[in-house]
């Protein structure tokens, strides 16, 4: 039987979105104030999401039987690898749980798609995103003026202001999603506010994401004066990156470790360390690490390989390909998908942070409606100044 409330899947997505923002901020308060003791409600919200998504799958099993069986088999194979191949440890178990969260997210959106609830999801989430973008923008401006530790991306030693966002691992994926959604809706002012917020967050991979997204936009959608616009985009990106690398912390890294290490935020050092420690006794090429002290260097596909081996790479690769085929209907969504994949490759923290996979799937569904494409041109920007004559 179908679950009695048809829109339960939508309520679950909306509820988790709001709970994530609220509880992550409470956790941020706890981190920044040692004297304030709070329960990590963001972990509780993820547990509730898993339980409720499981119930949704149970009551709607007949409706989406074929898709759910495939998901269960794939997730089951990952669990088998964990229980049979790997020695038990709390770190390994935590890693597995984080990676399995993606399957519950996919299951919920399968139900939303099957019940044709995408447009109703958009009608609720679009205004919520608008409100969040404006409110967080005001907090970012306040943080820039006051230098309040609570709203910093990192700490006082590094540039970055992310407002309500918990950390630098979640901010890039969330704000890249907001940019894509606002471009798709042709919301000029909110788009510019979000773009400014992206720059103020101070995360290099977000700058990369913006560059890749707009490059794709110019190549496949807004093709007028494309060469001039690409040159402008490249110059602007290099200028912003130059400003980032001229902050004290990156100057020091460049002097001590070199430009590559500064651009990679020391990920290259982690990568070298991990592969220098690999041997036949602590690592299996097919099934991943068995006794590695470090199995995460924040390069997504490398991290998947280190933990799950080639088997895991194939599984998550197949999942991503199927998501592309099933969810990327519009050109904007295809560009967004490729952008996120690029960000994953260079920065990681995608599958490891459940919120990132949730935001990714949510954004793809918000971009799923087959309406006329939104063009990032002078008409979209609604600015009379002609940047390219």
TrEMBL record:
Keywords: Membrane, Transmembrane, Transmembrane helix. The chain crosses the membrane at residues 9-26, 46-64, 71-89, 95-112, 124-145, 165-184, 191-220, 226-245, 304-324, 336-367. The keyword Transmembrane helix applies. It comes from the Bacteria. This is O-antigen ligase like membrane protein. It comes from Algibacter pectinivorans.
